[in-house]
Design a protein that fits this description.
The protein has 256 residues and is mostly beta strands. 5% of the residues lie in helices and 45% in strands. The chain contains two helices and 25 strands. The strands form two sheets. It has a 15-stranded mixed sheet that branches. Helix 2 links the parallel strand 2 and strand 3. The longest helix is centred in the N-terminal third of the chain and has 7 residues. The protein is globular, with a radius of gyration of 18 Å. The two termini are 31 Å apart. The relative contact order is 0.13.
Length: 256
């Protein structure tokens, strides 16, 4: 019989070391460390003579390995975007480069090896997902501010994904990891969501060094296996800090 195990989090002797880097200080290193360093750069917005006026038009003309760089002076960009190539999508400044979508998914990623950094990305409250990874492996989502959707970041059959330094709030699910293995969730801020992080029917997920506060459920595990929950700051969540349902072989340590 399936059993639900409710685990409260006790205060430890030390606080987790959380770092949230600014996008503007890490753009060059992000590009050089990921798959776009050998491709060309396409520019969106700004006043360059060959710049694109929409993000989707630049993506349509990009090739695997390219970078699409989006200037903030033409923000906000009212678009629903589909990424079907292995590209880097880079915003000039995460606080001022805004993408606002309507219903469905604001950014729908269908390709492997896609990387996103440096935006505020938001729905309209009824949006399904701000970022939806659909069979997208080896993808990195780094430093966006994400808000106002049913799901902030939704992984579906997407493996080896890294989610780092994101700020996600005012969503039903901050991060929803479904049928997706070997996910790394680190150094994110998740607040004012119903579920901060939910891991469902997935295995080998690392949830480490995050600030998960003021949600209803901080972390919810549903049929999850081999989940590592370490050094997170988990406080002021309304219902449960960590809730395990039919989940086995998880390591939970150093949280406070």
């Amino acid at each position: 019989m399936k059993k639900a195990i409710i685990i409260g989090i006790a205060f430890m002797l030390f606080m987790p070391s959380l770092t949230y880097s600014e996008n503007t200080n890490h753009l060059s290193s992000f590009i050089s460390e990921n798959n776009g360093n050998n491709g060309k750069t396409l520019h969106v917005g700004g006043d360059g003579p060959n710049n694109y006026t929409s993000i989707q038009s630049a993506i349509n003309n990009a090739k695997d390995g390219d970078t699409v760089f989006v200037y903030d002076d033409s923000s906000p960009y009212y678009e629903n975007i589909v990424i079907d190539k292995s590209i880097n999508l880079i915003g000039e400044n995460k606080d001022t480069t805004v993408i606002e979508g309507k219903n469905d998914n604001v950014i729908h990623i269908k390709a492997n090896d896609a990387d996103i950094t440096g935006f505020t990305i938001q729905g309209n409250g009824s949006t399904y997902a701000v970022i939806y990874l659909d069979h997208s492996n080896n993808t990195n989502i780094h430093s966006p501010i994400i808000q106002l959707a049913k799901k902030g970041i939704h992984l579906f059959h997407s493996n080896n994904v890294t989610l780092s330094n994101n700020i996600i709030y005012k969503c039903s699910y901050g991060i929803y990891n479904l049928f997706s293995n070997s996910t790394i969730i680190r150094e994110n801020i998740l607040k004012d969501n119903d579920h901060g992080v939910e891991i469902s029917h997935s295995k080998d997920v690392q949830i480490e060094n995050n600030n998960i506060s003021k949600n209803n459920y901080a972390i919810f595990l549903d049929n999850a296996l081999n989940i590592s929950i370490k050094r997170n700051l988990i406080k002021s969540n309304n219902v449960h800090a960590i809730y395990l349902f039919s989940s086995k072989h998880s390591v939970i340590t150093g949280n406070c």
